Amino acid sequence: MNIGLFSDTHGLLRPEAVAALEGCDVLIHAGDVGDRETLEELHAMGCRHVVRGNVDHGAWASGADGLPLRLELELGALRVVVVHDRAELEPPDELAARGVGLAVFGHSHRPAVERHADLWLVNPGSCGPRRFRLPVTVARAELDAASGKWIRAPEIVELEV
Which of 48, 50, 81, 146 sits between 20 and 30 A of 106, alpha carbons compared? Predict the structure, then answer.
């Protein structure tokens, strides 16, 4: 199972990001979509797992059918938690004790991959408008869904924009 992670589009879904995530079986967006049109673009590319970020306002984002602030998913044998801001996550040892193997967040626009025993913490960075001198990035990983073991651990993919 190929997993694509991205965040902080802020109303700009770059074609480079779409191309970098092509072929992914599961797409996860960690918030700050930006607007309804971008959310529709995410859905059109097959992204069904999206959380609300701090710039996501209005009925499309926070209404009755809007975006959740937190997602807890099972991808085969892998438990996943998705939030926008890392501050909204429990400490790594608590996540690991609950059997979470992947925690995804965004907000800072700073890409990061950290490992804590069997738990991966991933900020895919921002694939929307460039902020400061930070790179424009997404993240990818490959999982054996049946066992929950990583074939290719989460890694940051810098986009040439």
Answer: 146
